[in-house]
Amino acid sequence: MADTSALQDGARSEEATGVIGIHLGTSRASVAVLHKDGRPHLVANEDGDRMVPAYVAFTGGEEVSSSHEPIMLSIDDSCLIEDPAVDEFRGHGSRVALTEEHGQLQLEIPPEEQWNDDGELVQAGEASHYTPEQVVAVVMRQLRASAESALGRAVTGAVLAYPAHFSSVQRAGLCRAAQMAGLAVYQAVSEPAAAQLAFDASAAPGDVNRLVIDMGGTTFRVHAYAIRGGLYSRLASRTEANLGGRALDRALAGQLQRDFTRRHRIDLSDRPRSIAKLILACEATRRILGVRPSAPCSVESIADGIDLNVNVHRAVFDTAIAPLVQRCMAVISDVLAQAGWSVEGANDRARPHEVLLLGGASRLPLLHSQLNKLLQTATAATATSDDQPANGAIKIRTDIEPDEAVALGCAIQASLLAG
């Protein structure tokens, strides 16, 4: 079982490699290193956070990667997507335009924003222009600094993870961003490959059919792998956009918005800043509901000086997100069909044997319960690759935190390449 604890100052080691593993997800980023005990560890930043929101704030002509105010601009897959039609990033309800200059994609950042008490946007100054790679490099520089602080030495390079659907152009853009951050790119590996390396580090998986289900900040991805004699073959894959943590947050925010309107007769739909604040609060609420039956949701002065303070029960949350979870089940069923697998098949080689869950949003209790129904699984809280599911039941692996596996796998690969 991989140790996913963060390195602290007292745990620095000169034996640790200067090559790190970086995972830049759609909403959060993480960096991992191999410690002297030979196991990968996630590195905490100066605030003690191992999962850093992948946001960049543009203020006063400076760009700052910040875990405190993740509402100016979010790093997303679309930062590295060639399609100019992708033209909106999350933040204060404002738009960040994608333009082309001499054939190169650029982000046009609006002038520094100021808001009055009525929620109206007041702008001043001139717009700034950044390439997507420059924006991503800001986050990578922060991750590199955290790793150097933990290791007590310079970081010379990195292994990067990228979504499996990325094109060669997108992968090249990610590598350029790392180079801008002062990192030599030793290798770029797909997210499902890196995660499986972390899960399989303690023991070879043997011959197994595996589903890799990744629910991140903005997308839902499912991959089917057949592992035979140590070779990993991807049989099927599907990516569903706008089906991730943010969609869940918006679904809950929509429910709370309607409740607020009924109670106070105030329509929030034309107040983008209020909606942005509510969605951000719902994200924190969702994370708590992943482990508790209820959670608070609070927004100070959401409208006309009125605060929003409610206690959200998981049943209310489940009702709000049920259509989204059903979409997830449809994607999984489609990948099973593409792979030629059946959960009820008598042929053991034509059925899935285990499931890896990736991404912070995959902690949803409703997702787990619906997945259990769909796959007729046997979930083990400490399941490892050595455990055999009873009576041929499909096993859900939970031995590594779902949002940490990719970075840990990158760190393992980095140590192998660095020798």
TrEMBL record:
Gene3D superfamilies for the chain: 3.30.30.30, 3.30.420.40, Actin, Chain A, domain 4
GO-annotated molecular function: ATP binding; ATP-dependent protein folding chaperone
Coiled-coil residue windows: none
Protein's UniProt keywords contain Cell division: no
GO CC, alphabetical: cytosol; nucleus
Keywords, alphabetical: ATP-binding, Nucleotide-binding, Stress response
Domain of life of the organism encoding this protein: Eukaryota
SUPFAM superfamilies the record matches: Actin-like ATPase domain (SSF53067)
Pfam family, one: HSP70
InterPro entries: ATPase_NBD, Heat_shock_70_CS, Hsp_70_fam
Name of protein: Heat shock protein 70 family
Protein source organism: Syncephalis pseudoplumigaleata
